[in-house]
Amino acid sequence: MSKKTLVIGGGIAGITAAQKIAQNGGDVILIEKEDALGGNFAKLTYTFPVLGDAKALVSQEVQKVQTTPSIEILTNTTLTACQGSVGDFSVELKTLSGTRQEIVGAIIVAAGFHYMEPTAYTEYSYGRSPKVVTSLEFEKMAAENRLPQGNVRVVFVHCVGSRDKAKGYVYCSKICCSYSAKHAIMMKKANPQSKSYVFYIDIRALGKGYEEFIRSAMEEHNVRYIRGRVAKVLESEGKLLVRAEDSLMGNPVEVEADLVVLASAMEPPVGSRDLAAMLGIATDEYGFFQDVESNVRPCHSSKPGIFLAGSCTQPMEIASAVAMGGLSASEALAVTR
Amino acid sequence: MPRLDKVAQIPKPDKIFVFKSCVASNKYPGIEACSSDSLRILGIEPVDSDEQTCCGGFVTFANVAAPTASMPAVARNLSLAEEKGLDTCVVCNGCWTFLNEFGHFMNHNAEVKASVNMMLNMMGKEYKGTGSVYHIAEMYYRLKEELAENVKRPLKGIKVATHYGCHYLGGGKYTAIDDAQMPSYLEEIIEILGGEVVPYTANRECCGTGFTQVINGKDLSLEHTKTKLDSVKEADPDILVVQCPYCHSQLDRIQQQFNYRDEGDFQTPILHIAQLVGMGLGLDVAKLGFAAHVSGRARLENVLDRIGR
Amino acid sequence: MRLRIHENGIRTIVEESIQKSLTACLQCSKCGGGCAHVDEFDLSPRQVIEYLLDCLDEQVLDSRTIWLCGKNCTECEVICPVGLPLNGIMVTLREEATRRGVEPKYEQPSLIYHKFEHCSKHRREGEEG
Amino acid sequence: MLEQVKDWDDDFYERWKPIAMGFVNEAERCLQCGKCTGQCPAAAVTPGYNPRKLIRDLVDGNIKRILSSVELWQCFFCSGCYSTCPMDINFPFFIFMLRLGAMNEGYGWEDVKQLEAYAEKDYLKDGITVSIRERNPFVVDTVGDIGKIREAAGLPTKRVVSKRGVAEINMISDLSGMTSFMKKIGGVDLLDCNTCDDAQARRCKTKPLPSKVGKITTKTRFYNYGEPSGGKTNAKT
């Protein structure tokens, strides 16, 4: 029986799981398909509800795993085959230098998530106008100090791709409300002259301090929240026309904007169904990994010995991903020793 | 972006049943003449029947009876093509929606189909649901290569704006060949014909006819048409191309009314896509039926002078 | 009627006088729901604030609400979950309306206020457009 | 105005669903997100019209407000709401069916009557709804005879539907109950601008809307969703 644990995914959930196992005397192989650890967290500028420096936080965590001798980090590596059962999985890893066989006792899947590309939402002019960006692109713009300057209006659009039966996903992406508020605040801090508008259906601030965070955007940073889903973004004379309904009033409204930020849905990681088939575990209708019992065993996959962590199971914020990483680490330790 | 998988499913038959539209026949005969002739040039023999009536949609949208009353009329018209074993090609967005949508509804609703067939059987007809309905713009897009080969009178230097019309793209959310919000196949056809596409802001706005609104709520209808026409005027195209005769009639005739009322000076010629293709394919000028056009005829003459008669 | 939203309405004057951002309004409708006289207003206090945010200044200044509300009663102000001083807002609006020469509208609304007859203006020429 | 809960008809929607022939049955899905109204051409030019509110009232069962409203008759049928709806609600069909419901309660007959004339004089007589008759005096001056234009384009002078076709359309109309429905409304004059005299023209321009259509009294409709004055003046700034 192997005492090693394979962690798939070097995002914050995978890093936390690897760290916790190592802290308790286990051996870990941490694989990441990209060339650096950090995952989606590393692409952010600030965290919420406290505006912490995301890059510093994640590099601190990455450094911890990199300096732990019992964690072997393999970047640019993917899983290509997996056989066996709990305590004795034989896995095949494809690295840059070739393939490699390993025997591991447990597997933690922390494959993360993917921001949906809202190309199907042609009504928002995404991909046609450079002034319409996704939240991820907005983060990048903020990191590179490319946010528009001067007297500009920025419109944030909630629920792009989520809560949508026709073209997207029916589920709620859970964190878009909070991160859009974060973006609005970032915009205001970077350019105090700017005016921000947020179009929402409901505000779903499900976490400690989240409601207060969004209220602070409204009250202190003067962000205008309009209840209504944006119907159309048109380009007109170098400006964007954002059309929606102020559904609290019942009036169709129009905002002339210089930048439109689409809070696109969190969707399952690319290739999640293939990975699930390889591991022999179940996914839900969207392609997220299915837990076997969501109330008391949220990190157990449908196969014993394979555990789930982070946002590959459902849309989730950083704190929950960290908690879930810790939980799956303790479950993995229980079967490997 | 056009849905290429849908386009590929459209056949290139030898013959097709051309369903005539009421507005096209009686207000803008050029559309009727051009649709048959252009299809013939592109290698499809148009088949015609004088038994075909109005699509039957009028009954539903005017609320003069429940949709149950237009269902048999739709089925009857579709059965005319089915008898000949052909698919149907329509020139009007309204006809397309009703034939397509109600046909689809009957195909998936055995009870309604049976009751409709009970009526049709009395007149010796039957609706089976075997034929498909295609819009003529779809056919042109499918016959892109043939179109490119046959251009005789390239629309060189002619600025063309597009208006798709609501009932093809909106009503056909899942069945149309393009996305409802940002379609682009008409633009491609225009480029094949050698024209220059002009974008304008209100591209996807409704023409303002609103089925019955132009009769019962004229003020609303005019206000909406004005926003549309204002936006078109700003872009100043030589031609605004539409794919629905009803939009054609609204946009063409209301311009004249605004001019009479001194609410602006609108002189944009409106052309149906069949007329535009007919023009590109070098049909006789009389066949294009420009004499029936109300607004912007001087500009149409100018366009003809530029590209050759 | 589609509105173009901007930021240069009397909203700025109101915000200056109450020293608070109107975007703080939750739009929870507690003010109108708790008000004893809301039936007589044309706009509920919540709507006044939303109109101000939408820069529908004329509608706000033309409304009866600003003349009827915020006189002696502080019901809405007391129950407002974000503590917006609604009385202060109404006072500012009344001052602004007086400054602009808007006629005060104290009279009670008639019962048929909301029931406008269907306009029978009817044109026949060119029915098919 | 204060709305009383007793105004609501809790099971109207349930009762109405089967009447609507399975065309429409997903109003419960509505998220009230307002995407429909945001792009609606009718809402953009009308202060009160709002598809979202109509759906809300339908699901709530606040049906009196919908059926007696002017707004119900202001839809443009552009299908924009359907094409943009994240929950795939086919709202234009709601309007068809709700209008029939409103007519059942005695509203909107004057509108329908004008259209009925097209059905009776053109659709049933010639088999073509939009006939060669020109009803626009301006166009008569500009365009002239359509028959000649048709001839020049190589078409028959008049598009004629075969006798059999017209007979079959009439038969369908009888069988589906459309004819009896139209008899109930009664006929109406349809004028032809080509042939109309001065007296007729005067009457045509000044004729008020009828209060009675055939044997049916039509009730006055109201602006139930807002006042007919809007942000028109502010919209420009």
Care to describe what's here?
The complex is a heterotetramer of chains A (337), B (309), C (129) and D (237). Chain A is an alpha/beta fold. Chain A has helices spanning 12-23, 54-66, 135-143, 176-190, 210-219, 272-279, 318-336; strands at residues 4-8, 27-32, 71-75, 78-85, 88-95, 98-104, 106-109, 114-115, 132-134, 153-160, 195-200, 224-227, 232-236, 239-246, 251-257, 259-264, 266-267, 306-308. Chain A has two domains: 4-113 and 268-336, 3-Layer(bba) Sandwich (FAD/NAD(P)-binding domain); 116-265, FAD/NAD(P)-binding domain (3-Layer(bba) Sandwich). Chain A contains seven helices and 18 strands. In chain A, the strands form five sheets. A five-stranded parallel sheet of chain A has the order 3-2-1-7-18, covered by helices on one side. With 309 residues, chain B is α/β, with parallel strands linked by helices. By secondary structure, chain C is mainly alpha-helical. Chain C has one domain (11-114): Fumarate Reductase Iron-sulfur Protein, Chain B, domain 2 (Orthogonal Bundle), CATH 1.10.1060. Chain C contains seven helices and one strand. The longest helix of chain C has 14 residues, at 86-99. In chain C, 38% of the residues are buried. Residues 109-129 of chain C have low confidence and may be disordered. By secondary structure, chain D is mainly α. Chain D folds into two domains: 5-107 and 220-230, Orthogonal Bundle (Fumarate Reductase Iron-sulfur Protein, Chain B, domain 2), CATH 1.10.1060; 109-196, no CATH class. Chain D is built from 14 helices and two strands. Chain D has a two-stranded antiparallel sheet with strand order 1-2. In chain D, helix 8 (109-126) runs antiparallel to helix 11. Classes of the chains: A alpha/beta (337), B alpha/beta (309), C mainly alpha (129), D mainly alpha (237). Chains B and D meet through helix 2, helix 3, helix 4, helix 5 and helix 7 of B and helix 3, helix 6, helix 7, helix 8 and helix 9 of D. Strand 15 of chain A pairs parallel with strand 1 (3-5) of chain C, so a sheet runs across the interface.
